[in-house]
Amino acid sequence: MAEYKRPTTEAEFAANFHPKKPLMSDTEAYYESSRCLYCYDAPCITACPTGIDIPTFIRQINNDNKDGAAKTIYDSNWMGHACGNVCPTEELCEGACVYNHQDVKPIEIGRLQAHATDKVIRSKKKLFITGKPTGKKVAVIGAGPAGVSCACELRMLGHAVDIYEAREKPSGLCVYGVAPYKLTNEEAVDEIAYLQEQFGFNVHYKKPVTGRAELDKLEKDYDAIFIGIGLGGTSALGIPGEDKKGVMGALEFVEELRNKHHATPVGNKVIVLGGGNTAMDAASESCRMGAESVTISYRRGPEEMGAYSFEFDLAKKSGSKALFNVTPVEVLGNGSVTGVKFIRNKAAYGKIEEIPGSEFVEPCDMVLLGTGQGKQVELLKLVSGLTLDQKGRIVVNENYQVDNPKYFAAGDAMNGGVEVVNAAAEAKRAAHGIDQYLKK
Amino acid sequence: MADLRTNLAGIKSPNPFWLASAPPTNSGYQIMKAFDAGWGGAVWKTLGVPVVNVSSRYGAVNYRDKRMVGFNNIELITDRPLKDNLREISEVKKRFPDHAVIASLMVETKEEWHQIVRDVENAGADGIELNFGCPHGMCERGMGSAVGQEPKVLQMIVEWVKEVAKVPVITKLTPNISDITRPARAARAGGSDAISLINTIQSIVGVDIDQFVPYPIVDGKSTNGGYCGPAVKPIALNMVKNCAQHPDVNLPISGIGGVENWRDAVEFILLGATTVQVCTAVMHFGFGIIREILPGLERYMDEKGFKTIDDFRGKALPNIKHWEDLNLKYKVTASINESKCIGCQLCYTACEDGAHQAIALSSDPANRIPSIIDENCVGCNLCSLVCPVEDCITMERRDDGKEHLTWGERTAAGNIPKTFDDPLAGGLHHWVPEPAEALVKKKPKHYKG
């Protein structure tokens, strides 16, 4: 029932992966911004983890002051353009828009935000003046949303910043893990370049920090260190046959897809294991890559899925089916995957119970594991005085400082993996924690 | 079934909707097209000695995404030769004998007036409208609003026209005057059969902030224009009312100013107009808007049981009093329908910053529904006006309706405040916060201070 034809050219890929929130034209932005009611103490602001003054930037768009709109956005959120595209706005600002209570379509805040920031990124207009140099130097590990946000804020506070990035490109999951119909690599990278141009932080690419020796050097060379390393690769499921050809992590699949586009191999019958947002992305993307059938499987019922309902809706609209209350017990196949054996579950007192004898096999030629990302505990364990909680998340105080006072952390490595906007919000506050520490 | 036929001082038309003298009535082609679409009458673009116009003639006031809520022009009267217009008047009348064709005129000398009145009558015009209103271009030459602003001159010219006119004469008034009834009375004194108002208001619609020139721009320069469109309707309604209520005016009225739908027309008629004239709405949307206007008016009249326009003409006039005759004992306060409230809190901030601090927010931030502090509410309506939800905030009557006391009656009884700190001050017992409370009140994030 493939709704999408398998893309064989860049044009076909682009058509199948048409942006979910395409950039607004000036006219559309004008009409849409005209609708904003300009609520008092607006609920959209409260719903935004970075607390952007949304009614003000919308009014600025409406009054033909798009630089001002972009400034308002970046004042609160250094990932303004990425967030305008990838934020789950349905759950945040747009979900809080009072129009929802009137059965009127909420203001398209995400698209308006992307419209304003896109203008300023393209014009390369500098909106900020960095702080008076303090003579202090901060090392930032990871050039993802947390690291870059922290770097921008630190520069506003006058501290020098060097970012150490393991990979070739900045922006972390914005480049390596977000669904391609939400944000293109160019958009993600352009925003970082725009920020770097006016804030003047250094980014050292392909410079992973992995060993104690590197940490020693950072500790010696810098006054403080910010950890924004995010999470690791997809965790293993721990069932037999997981190593067969055709089984891969959903996140790794998304990364491949973002970089190889239509050249990414995708099976005809794809099973996605998991009920989180990455699983939904992988399912939607497999459909768009022309898979004949895409089946999401989840151990519990639909209402208990970790994914946002709109992401599940998108996966269904793209052509995915779903199996609920099933647990995968084995990946079948002789070298290459040929199917997944499931057992059915029933819910009992909040726990799931397997129903004996209910095993069945769902044939497939590709399995995507949406089982969550592992933590990069090896590195973290090398930092003396850094504590991890039971889930492997870095423990910080209200200043985002770890028990070793020289270290600060935010983003997925600290919060366990949430949204870009959360990383941006936390990292900005962490920069102020660092500033306080450096002033002592 | 409603009968829309009208008769303004003897000028008959199948319905009260006329095109005002303006660009849409520049030619017989346009007027035929309008009559064919359903319009009842048309006042021809002002005839006189043809002018030369500038290029770049109109400017607009847009409000957010709504275009042309206000509109101005620096175009003058017709720039076409009189003989062409006269021939077209004849053609239109031949094809539409039952529709009203009124010739708008503007000339200088008595001889010119006599000549042109005869000419348009001979061409078949059903009436004449004297353009004493145009506030730009022509007034500098002693015509248009220069006449409308001088009642004595106005009266004299009306008298000249009436010396020869056989068809009804309408005097069109300029609003660029402090008391509209003065020229209206002069028109009556001069023998005018009807009045029409308002002409456009002297205006600058906006300034190009990069070139430092107002709109519309003519080779880097501009001039004031005449303002019209939906934004001027309230001014027009008030002036129509003033003329309709004045006992010494007592002339049929053709109402003009921002009419674009059936409801606007009803409002003008309720304030005493017999017909209405439309220009800006047609310049914006074309003659086709009549498709909404006519059935809208018919439905309204049928619902109210009005058989003719005369059945409700002026029906609102007895309800318009002087301020001192309003009942001071009447008391309304706002009421919020919680089931309709969407939590925008515009009412709160409007009342808090712009009125009487009579709306409170819940101490629970999750509850965004404000509440009225009844004892502080003066019943000003502001909250109900800013509320984006229909019928969410209503003004509820709180007095028992038994008492009636007006400022006039209190004045007569000597029961009014007379000194600066008079204990009879109306606001004496109204609660207001102490000034310094403004600085300690909790503010939302991003609000300065």
Portion of residues in helices of chain A? 25-40%
Total beta-strand segments of chain B: 20
Instruction: Tell me the CATH architecture of the largest domain in chain B.
Output: Alpha-Beta Barrel
CATH topology of the largest domain in chain B: TIM Barrel
CATH class of the largest domain in chain A: Alpha Beta
General shape of chain A: globular
Instruction: Quickly count the helices of chain A.
Output: 18
The radius of gyration over CA of chain B amounts to 26 Å
CATH topology of the largest domain in chain A: FAD/NAD(P)-binding domain
* Class based on secondary structure composition and strand pairing of chain B: alpha/beta
Structural overview:
The complex is a heterodimer of chains A (440) and B (449). Chain A is α/β, with parallel strands linked by helices and 440 residues long. Chain A folds into 3 domains: 21-123, Alpha-helical ferredoxin (Fumarate Reductase Iron-sulfur Protein, Chain B, domain 2), CATH 1.10.1060; 137-232 and 374-439, FAD/NAD(P)-binding domain (3-Layer(bba) Sandwich), CATH 3.50.50; 247-369, 3-Layer(bba) Sandwich (FAD/NAD(P)-binding domain). In chain A, 39% of the residues lie in helices and 16% in strands. Chain B has 2 domains: 6-316, Alpha-Beta Barrel (TIM Barrel), CATH 3.20.20; 321-435, Alpha-Beta Plaits (2-Layer Sandwich), CATH 3.30.70.20. Helices cover 29% and strands 19% of the residues of chain B. In chain B, the strands form 6 sheets. Chain B has an 8-stranded parallel β-barrel, surrounded by 7 helices. A 4-stranded antiparallel beta sheet of chain B has the order 5-6-14-11, with no helix packed on it. In chain B, strands 1-2 form a two-stranded antiparallel ribbon. Chain B is globular and about 75 Å long. At the A-B interface, helix 2 and helix 3 of A face helix 11 of B.
